Fold:
Amino acid sequence: MIIVLPFLTALISAWFTWRGHRASAMGWWAITAAIYVAWCFYHMTTPLKISL
Amino acid sequence: MIHYLFGLRRWTDCLNALALVGVGGTLWFAFVWQIVYHDLPCPLCLLQRVAFAMVGIGLMLNVCFGSRPAHYGIAILSALAGMVSSARQVLLHIAPGDPGYGMPFLGLHFYTWALIAFFLLALYLGVLLMLDGMKQKDAADIPRSPGWLGNLGVYSFLVILLVMFVATLLECGLGPCPDDPTDYLWIPGN
Structure:
């Protein structure tokens, strides 16, 4: 699990936005979002000390 | 009208550019805090920074290409994603006697501020989406001049993304970060 990976993909997305490539930027945002969700599942395993 | 002072055509462009400056400023503040107080971010804190970056990408698309529902959708979904990770961290430390993670700022920890910020961002973007009279017939793929305020937001956002990438690489290397990091993994002598 590479924690720095979504920072890289977000940077690529912002770079494409800056360079005027809208579709590529939105594609890299989607990749960033997918990695974000996966990393959330990886890090959210500790049981919470609360009752819901 | 005031938006002409910022070099922008519409007042909603001005609000999008201001929000981008705000998101970039938030990330800059977190980074400066990290350096000055040696307060290293935990994995969930890093995920919250990623969520701010994703919100910023939606705003940057609005600033660089003009407002579109898809751009607002990206920013609002990213704010909701950020609320999930920050709410999770708030719940982790909500039990009585828990000191929380990291140094508090103005009485609240950074993940609590992040939860408030993501909620306010989602609210702000939702209202802006309702009020924004977008011209759907304009070509969305053609970049346009973002004005000096937009340029300020875009360049500060791009630089802080690069800085955060390098800082996270130095802190965690090419693996997962420990839950309670105390030093930079890739800085010799630590």
The longest helix of chain B spans residues 11-37. Chain B has a mean pLDDT of 91.
